[in-house]
Structures are given as structure tokens and as C-alpha cells.
Amino acid sequence: MIEYVEADVAREARGVRIVVPMTVASPWSEATKAVFRLAGVPVLAVRFAFGNKDLVAWTGVDNVPVVFHGREPARTSWAAIVGLAARIATRPILPAAPAARAEAMGQLEVIAGEDGIGWNGRLAMIHAGLTTNGDKGFAPQVSGYLAKRYGYTPELGAAVRDRVAAQAAWLAAQLGDRPYFGGDAPSAVDAYAATFLTVLTTIGEADCPKMLPPNRAAFGAAAELLADVVPPALFALRSRMFEQHLPWPIEL
Predict the structure, then answer these.
(1) Given CB 3.0 to 4.6 Å as the disulfide criterion, which of 16, 121, 181, 197 pairs with 238?
(2) Is the pLDDT of residue 49 over 90?
(3) Tens digits of per-residue pLDDT, 83-107?
(4) Residue 88, C-beta contacts closer than 8 angstroms, at least 6 positions apart
């Protein structure tokens, strides 16, 4: 379903092409791969190394994921990516009814949006890196770079745990006792929940063999701070998704 190719091959193709990182299981990129898998859409993927000026020139941004479809403009936001996947899906990943679709998009916002679970998980890694001089979280130079992108302040970093606890509790209440947010079958919300909870999980080498050790350690800092505020039902959903619907171990 997902074939990794060189950039020049993807640039000349016409279907869905995505650009994703090489060395870290970034939740926004992993969710992009997951949602197209659930949608049954074949994808060509390009591995992005930060600092690759040729890829930046092609994509128009210095961040990932980036999604191309035909000759349409590049998509970089989670909402645009999910919308595209739902539009061209061979299997439904969002409800058709307007109210139910709006509800699903609201759940996705809490997971993937600005100040959502993934955003706060990233802040936790930044905060740990800056307050421990890199003994935990990201290395200081990485933390300093990301701090500007995420509007980090020490006050925001110190309040991450409370925000994630409230968001995760709300999300678990939305799931209820259903196997998936989509009911009996997984939806885009399930794909995003499963991949974004990776941020709050200790990732061993066997779980994601190509992830670089510094990135693995950064995820460990977020898990140390936040994993115990996540209701067990959400981690059970993550396990179900990777056992039944998404590749394991995590492939970069």
C-alpha cells in the first residue's frame, strides 16, 4: 500500500505522494501514513532528511508531512490531509452525515491540532530538554529550535501534564465502550489516536528499529511525564489498531 521511492520518482508521479521523516516516528507523519492505509489508497512515500534543500524546494516547506495528489497544491495540515484521504478513499474513514463528520473532526483537533495531545507531547519533550540540559527530552539545540515553532514558555511546559490529562479523559469518554471511534470499524480518528499515542509511549528498538536513539529518548521523556494520565481504554485502542490494522513494528 505504501511504497518508498526516491524524490525524482515521486515528483513525476500523479497519484498520492507523501514526504515523511527518516529517523523519527513523528505522529503527524505516522498518522498520515495510517489514514491512507485505512482509506485503501496506494501511496508513494519519500523519506525526508532535514536540511535537504532539494526536497524543501519541491515541497515548499521545511517540515513534514507533505502530501501531493495529482497536480493539486501540496497539503501540509492534518485537516487537509484527512479531507483528501476521505475524498479519495475506497473505504470510508469519516462519517458522511454532516453532524457526525463535524464530531469526528473535533475529536481529531483534540488529538492533532494546535495545543492538542500531540502538540503538548512535543512541548513535553522540549521542556524536558531545556530543563535538564538535554539529559532528558530533546538535545538543547533541538529543543531551542522547536521551542520557537511551538510557542514554548516555561509556564506552558510546566502545565503540559494537566492539559493532556483533560484532553485524554475527554477523548476516552468520546470512545466509550466501543471498539473504535468509528463504531465497529476503524476511522480516521482511530488512526490518529493510535499514532499520536506513540508520543506518550516508551519506544524500544524492536518497536521502531530505524528510529535514532536520541529521538527514542525524547519520546521516553514524554512518556515518563504523561503516560499515566492516559486512560487505559485509549492505550487498548492503540494496541488494537497496531495488532489488526497498522504495520508493526513501526516502519520509517
Answers:
(1) 197
(2) no
(3) 999 999 999 999 999 999 999 999 9
(4) 16, 39, 41, 69
Name the residue among 170, 169, 193 with its Cα closest to residue 181.
193
Beta bridge partners of 48: 21
CB 15 within 8 A of CB 69: yes
| φ, ψ for residue 72, nearest 5 deg | -75, 160
Q: What is the CATH number of domain 2-88?
A: 3.40.30.10
- Region of residue 59 (left: phi > 0; alpha: psi -120 to 50; beta: else): alpha
Residue whose grid cell is 515548499: 60
Listed by start position, the domains of the chain span 2-88, 98-244
**Given 3.10.450.50, 1.20.1050.10, 3.30.450.50, 3.40.50.2000, which CATH number is that of 98-244?**
1.20.1050.10
- By CB atoms closer than 10 A (0-12, 13-18, 19+), residue 51 is exposed
Measured between alpha carbons, how far is 192 from 173 in angstroms, rounded to an integer? 16
Q: Which residue is listed with cell 491512507?
A: 36
Give the dihedral sign, CA 156/160/165/171. positive
